[in-house]
Structure formats: structure tokens, C-alpha cells
Amino acid sequence: MSVSPTRNPGTELRPEWFEDVQVNRTAAERRAAAITASRTVKKNYQAAWLLRAIQCIDLTTLAGDDTPGRVRRLCAKARQPVRPDILEALGVDNITTGAVCVYPTMVPHAVKALEGSGIPVASVATGFPSGLTPLPQRLAEITYAVGEGAHEIDIVITREHVLLGNWQALYDEIRAMREACGEAHMKAILATGELGTLTNVYRASMVAMQAGADFIKTSTGKETENATLPVSLTMLRALRDYGELTGHAIGFKPAGGLRTAKDALAWLALMKEELGNRWLQPDLFRIGASSLLGDIERQLEHHVTGRYANAEHHALS
Ligand SMILES: O=C[C@H](O)COP(=O)(O)O
């Protein structure tokens, strides 16, 4: 796919791009399973893929008991996600995670802790995770987070608009959110586990991109069902169709429940198979995760030393 390097400006609402699309769940499940089964990444390649996965992680804390101290520790981990001796053995200079993702009131603490690192701060906003506060308040939350220095905003959509097929209302709210984001890049969380069908997932993805989303993201991490491979495949197909229709490259962020190195490898394989290597870069691919890094570091250590360290050696992940 040939794509424009400029930011997605969105389009008018174009229901004709998605209204007739029907996604077959069985076919999506079969294709997702085939991709992950056919691609076993071996030894050295596996370490390289895991390092790439780290560079694409939005290292996240979204808990009711978050404190500035926890956010600072998370930011320290984002700056140095892998122990220096493991990196040295792999012959790699320090790498960082793709971003740090926090609640709006934690943004100033993250911005300060990441100063000079080049690591962007992402903030959830718009009544995360349910999105059920009045629109002016949801927009004000974006304005607040951007004002505090957030570089990226992860918005949530009103699931009701999807469930009722009210595409204009969905488009209008996401458009307003994109405007409130200004220069900050906007990731649209669809909360796919609450959208009922894969057909709805495809349609909501398309509306979010038409309304100017820079990324489409599966889940908040708080739904009963979070990121799955068939849902991700459906979103990637929408993303590819949008790219072919407009020439704009949209990013993808699976989030919620990704906890193991094996999960990270499965999603990298999906990205590579469906979209190619260009979508294995942090400007177009992020993994939203609060507890994935620990297992990746563990697997890298095993790769280097041939054994697993105790879990407490990988303290915060
Ligand atoms: O956006 C990121 C998610 O909230 C993280 O979910 P998780 O805690 O299941 O990794």
C-alpha cells in the first residue's frame, strides 16, 4: 500500500465505505489462527522481535490508586526497559518504550519524569473507560491533558452510537475530539468487546478514521473482553481499506490483556502479515500494556543466559 506521510485529516462521513461490509467471524478467527500458527520466530530473530515489541509498548498505568511515585517509577522503566547487562549481551544500545500512558491528572508527573528522553506521554481522556460523561466535559478533559503536556490522547467512543448504528453521532463526537486534541495525536479506543459484532468493529473503525483518528485502538483494558486477534484482524482490514481509499496511514494499538512475550510475537506477526514491515514501527504500531514488559525482559534474559531469573529481579513491569 502506498501511503502519504502526512497526518490523517479525515474525510466527510462516508457510510458507503462501510455500510455494506459484513465481517464473517469464523473466517476472521480462522485467518488469525493461521497467521500466528504459520509464523514461529526463531532464536536471534525472536530477540530482535521482542526488542521491537518493547519499542512499541505504551507502558501503562491506569489504576485508581495511581500516585506520582508510581508514575515516576513507570517512567524510569520506560527510559530503561531492559537491564543494561542483558542489552549489552545482545549487542544493543539502550532502547525505550514507545510511550507512557496514564490518567489525565498524572500527565504532569509523567511529563516531568520523561523530560529530555523523547518518550511521548499519552493520556486517556473523554470519561475513560466508559465515555459516559457529557461531551463538553469529555472535550475539556482532552484540553486539560494537552495543556499539561500530553503528546497523545487516547479517547473512548460512545458505544451506544455503534450499537444503534448512529454513525453521524459517532462521527461528530470523534471529530470534535480530534479538534480538541490539536497537535496531539489521537488514538480512538473502540472498546471492541462491547460492540457486539465484528461487523460493528469494522464500521466503527472506519468512522473513527473518517473523523480523523491517527490510531485505532481495540480496548481500554477494562472491558470483559479486551484485545483479541480476530478483532485486531478486522480493524487492520478496515485500516488497510481506508489507506487504499485515502492514501493515509493509520496506526493500530491492541490493548488490554496482552501479558506475555508470546502475545507480543503473535501481534507482531499479524501486523507483518497483514500490513508489512512499515507497521512494525512505533509511529504506526503500539501495544497498550501494563504488565507485558516483565515477561519480555524475562525471555530476553533467558535468551542471553539460558535460564530464567526469579520474578523479583524484574521488579516493575
Ligand atoms: O491501554 C492500555 C490498557 O489499559 C492496558 O491493559 P492491561 O492492564 O490489561 O495491560
From TrEMBL:
* SUPFAM superfamilies, per database record: Aldolase
Which one Pfam family would you cite for this protein? Answer: DeoC
EC class of the enzyme, as a word: lyase
- Give the Gene Ontology MF terms in alphabetical order: deoxyribose-phosphate aldolase activity
* UniProt catalytic activity: 2-deoxy-D-ribose 5-phosphate = D-glyceraldehyde 3-phosphate + acetaldehyde
Its annotated pathway reads: Carbohydrate degradation; 2-deoxy-D-ribose 1-phosphate degradation; D-glyceraldehyde 3-phosphate and acetaldehyde from 2-deoxy-alpha-D-ribose 1-phosphate: step 2/2
UniProt EC number: 4.1.2.4
Keywords of the record: Lyase, Schiff base
In terms of NCBIfam families, this protein maps to: deoC (TIGR00126)
Which family, according to UniProt? Belongs to the DeoC/FbaB aldolase family. DeoC type 2 subfamily.
The name this protein goes by in its record: Deoxyribose-phosphate aldolase
The source organism is: Chelativorans composti
